[in-house]
Design brief:
The chain is α+β, with helices and mostly antiparallel strands. The protein has one domain (18-79). It has helices spanning 6-16, 62-70, and strands at residues 20-28, 31-40, 45-50, 55-59, 74-79. It has a 5-stranded antiparallel β-sheet with strand order 4-3-2-1-5, covered by helices on one side. It is elongated, with a radius of gyration of 16 Å. The two termini are 27 Å apart.
Length: 82
């Protein structure tokens, strides 16, 4: 496979356009908040999955997720990639 063929071009785009991975975690009273997500740069889109609640949220960014959950308690955002 080379980057000159259509599949090679898609492989290149898959690498360049990959989402950034993050976690949101913290405490709201005695309740733990823990979720993982993907932020899609340049698309104003992010997904957050909260496994304990079996819920997946769609929003505009990881920072927006942080702002929403920070209203509930002491919450942090960590990026898993540079």
């Amino acid at each position: 496979m080379t980057f000159d063929d259509p599949i090679g071009q898609l492989a290149k785009r898959a690498s360049w356009q990959r989402p950034r991975l993050f976690a949101v975690y913290g405490l709201s009273g005695a309740r733990e908040i823990l979720g993982w997500g993907m932020d899609f740069p340049g698309r104003d889109a992010a997904l957050l999955h909260l496994p304990d609640d079996a819920v997946t949220h769609h929003t505009t960014s990881a920072e927006r997720v942080l702002l929403r959950y920070a209203m509930l308690g002491d919450v942090r955002l960590t990026w898993f990639d540079a």
